Every structure is written in C-alpha cells, then in structure tokens.
TrEMBL record:
CDD domains xref list: PAS (cd00130)
Full protein name: histidine kinase
Keywords noted in UniProt: ATP-binding, Kinase, Membrane, Nucleotide-binding, Phosphoprotein, Transferase, Transmembrane, Transmembrane helix, Two-component regulatory system
Localization: Membrane
Record keyword Thylakoid present: no
Length: 456
C-alpha cells in the first residue's frame, strides 16, 4: 500500500452512498504520517500542522480508549475497525467509521497503519434513520405532489393491509385514484399543503389491500426537495378508525336517548293532563307514569354504561368466566326474584375480556326474562382447546329478526330506537371488544339460544 491512496487531482474514492471517504497513515507510535485531500476537507485541518501529531489527540475524549484498542490490534498485525468521533478544526465532533490496515515490512514487522475514514453521515446515519422509521409507532411516508409514493415504513404498510412497504408502494401508483375513497379529499389536502406548507390532523378514508376502508389521520409537511421535478411531501399517519366508529356510535346513542326521552315524556305529560282534568282513573294513570319513569331510568343506566364502554379502555384481562356468569346471575335475580335461571359451569374457565363483560351476560338474561311468559332460562359454559362458549337459552317467544341481526353484527344500529336495541347493542360491543363472536339459534321446542364464543 502506498502513502497516497488517491490523487488530489483525480476522482475521490467514494463509499456505496456516493460520499467521499478519507485516508491517513499512522506510524507505529500512532503519530500522523500522511493525510489525503479528503481528510483535509473533512476535518478542516492543515496537513502541515497535523504531521507528526498523535492522532489520538484528535479523537473525542470518550472514544479514545476505543481507538487505542483498535490501533493496538492493527499495530500487532490485525485488521480492525471502530466507530469514533474526531474533532474538526472548529471543535465539531465528526462521527466516522475508521478501518485500520497494517502494512508490514520484509521481516514481517508492522511498519505503519493505513486508515480509511468513512463519515457516518453517509451510511451509519442513514441506516439509523431507517431503523427509527421501522420502530416508529405511526406510519411514516415520503410522497410527491403528483401522487407518487417514494417510501413508507412497515407500520403504514400494515395499516393498509400489506406485508411489506414494497407491496404497498407497488399498489398505490396514483394516491388520488388508488388510496382515497373520496378523491376530492386528496385535492383538498394538496390545496391546504401548498398554501400553508404544513397540514395537521387531516382525516380521510383509505382503501386497503382487501378493499376495506380505514379512517386515517395525516400530518404532513411540504419540503423543498424534488423528485422528477415534483416537490416531496413527508409526514406521518395514524389509524383513527376505532375513534371514528366510536364517535359514530356515540352519535347514534345520543339520538336514541333523545327519541326515548321524548316518547316517555309525551306519555307522562298525557297522563298528567288527564289527571288534571279528571278524565282518567288516578290509579291507572299513576301506574302508567311510574312504569314510564322506571323504564326511562333503566334506559338511562344502560346508555350510561354504553357511553362509558365506548369511551373507556379497550385492554383485556384474563378473567374466570364462571365467576362472571355467577355475578351476572346474581345481579339479574335481584331484579327478577321469581325468575328461574339455571347454571351449568365447569370449575373454572379463563378468557381475556374487557372490564364489565359480565354486563353482556346479565343483559341477555334480563332480556330473556322480560320478554318471556314465565320463561325458563339457562346458562351453560363449555371450554375446548381454542375457545370458551357461553350459551344463554330461554323458552320464550323467540328473538325478533332485527335483534338477531343486531347481535350478530348484520343490522345497522340506526333503526334501534327502542329499549331492547340499546341493551343488545351494549351486549355486542362488550363481546366484540373482548375479541369474541355471537351467534343466535332457535331453541327446541321453543325459544332462543344466544352463544358467545371467546378465544382462550
């Protein structure tokens, strides 16, 4: 190896990322013997001033032991490498990767050590940046104003239903046409971005790999960088589908509350008017008023529970389902003391459910008792290798089709302007948020069997 690995008049040697690397030679005592032009450009130091000076003096204090270990290894005849920071002429710390290669004389002794200095900004920093993108808890992207995707991280690819960023990039050739459910939202986003340079909390519906729709919220910034003449947009994305669905459900619940309240107050007001004009039997009118107020209070309690559920945490914890069944049965019998509710359960059966899951069982028991003419109600818990099943069976008149569809997730919630609808809506939310499923079947010879299945 010569003292001049590159000619100052020719092309510099460059790394894989196109950034010039520097070279130096050290004597066996660690003093600087030679530096090239790239070394001078990198550090801002004069080669005359640095000649003969111990290189370790230019290494940042915390990295000196690291350098000396690597240099000692090279001085003993071994190739070595280390990541250190050297001080530029202005005191700036320059992170570099230093590769050390010993040169030996004819007798085999090391005569000097040649060093290759690669600025970490070219390779290591790029890799570190890419690593941060991959562990980011949000989707990160770089796109262009004409709708091309330059890069995304795995998190965003997963949001869109793809196994890899490459798969997602290939699928979205034109963001306006391929990603946005409403293409005009892309135009609205670009108008705001071009006007302000930054857009925050921009929400839109996106098409996923399976053709489903997800609500995404995007924060983006317009850069001065360009790709094929188009300016680059960078930013991050969060999936807000659950929040949007929760907001929609709360809006539905509010409409149900207003509807039920208006109906109940209309009946109460009518009965009060009849009493005032002595046109109704006082006892019957009072009974009607009390029934309506009791029903209204029960509705308010259900709606309060549902509101707390929709706004509350969604984390599950492992619980003994048999205990929850017994708790639900006891709660229901406090209200329906004469009801017959039998239970068949194992000693224990554990599954992960959200807080308050027992309300789902209690609501189904209450619904079966209220709508049956002296019905027999039973709860059976079974467990296999993959799931726990809870059967709530009754001998009542059967569950109307709209309520079956609601429990199974087929019916829309909007037509459920009645008390049973709110209760069954609560049941479904508790089960779904516990990663469970619900099915409904006819009981023999009459009645209904509702089955909740929870993964173990």
């Amino acid at each position: 190896m010569t003292d001049r690995p590159c000619d100052s008049r020719g092309d510099r040697q460059r790394d894989d990322h196109g950034v010039a690397v520097a070279f130096q030679s050290l004597d066996t005592d660690g003093s600087v013997r030679f530096v090239d032009d790239e070394w001078v450009a990198l550090t801002g130091r004069d080669r005359v001033d640095i000649a003969g000076r111990p290189f370790v003096e230019l290494v940042s204090g915390g990295d000196r032991d690291v350098f000396e270990d690597a240099f000692d290894s090279a001085a003993d005849g071994d190739v070595d490498s280390c990541a250190i920071a050297v001080r530029a002429s202005d005191g700036t710390a320059l992170p570099i990767t230093l590769d050390l290669h010993p040169e030996t004389s004819s007798d085999g002794a090391v005569s000097r050590v040649h060093c290759r200095l690669e600025p970490q900004s070219s390779a290591t920093k790029l890799e570190a940046s890419e690593g941060l993108l991959e562990v980011a808890p949000v989707g990160v992207f770089r796109t262009t104003t004409d709708g091309r995707v330059l890069s995304i991280n795995h998190k965003l690819a997963a949001m869109l239903g793809y196994d890899s960023p490459q798969g997602a990039i290939a699928a979205y050739n034109d963001l306006e046409k391929d990603l946005y459910v409403e293409p005009q939202r892309r135009a609205e986003f670009l108008d705001r971005l071009l006007e302000n340079g930054i857009v925050e909390e921009f929400e839109y519906r996106a098409l996923t790999a399976s053709g489903q729709q997800r609500w995404l919220s995007m924060n983006a910034r317009l850069l001065d960088e360009r790709s094929d003449g188009e300016r680059i947009i960078t930013g991050f994305t969060r999936d807000v589908t659950d929040r949007k669905r929760r907001d929609q459900q709360l809006a539905i619940l509010e409409r149900i509350l207003r509807h039920n309240l208006r109906n109940a107050l209309t009946v109460i007001q009518g009965q009060a008017e009849l009493l005032r004009w002595e046109r109704a039997d006082a006892k019957d009118a009072v009974e009607t008023i009390l029934d309506r107020t009791d029903s209204l209070l029960q509705q308010a309690e259900k709606e309060r529970s549902l509101t707390e559920l929709l706004r509350g945490p969604t984390e599950t914890t492992r619980r003994d389902i048999t205990i929850l069944v017994e708790t639900a049965r006891a709660d229901v019998l406090e209200t329906h003391a004469d009801a017959a509710v039998s239970v068949e359960i194992p000693e224990a059966a554990h599954a992960a459910v959200i807080p308050g899951f027992e309300r789902a069982i209690a609501e189904l028991l209450d619904n079966a008792i209220r709508h049956g003419d002296d019905p027999t109600v039973s709860v059976t818990v079974r467990e296999d290798q993959s799931a726990i099943e809870i059967d709530i069976a009754d001998t009542g008149p059967g569950l109307p089709e709209i309520e079956r569809e609601l429990l199974c997730g087929v019916a829309d919630e909007t037509p459920l302007f009645h008390g049973t609808g709110v209760g069954l809506f609560l049941v479904r939310q508790l089960v779904v948020r516990s990663n469970g499923t619900i099915s409904v079947a006819d009981n023999e010879p009459e009645g209904t069997v509702v089955t909740i299945r929870l993964p173990t």
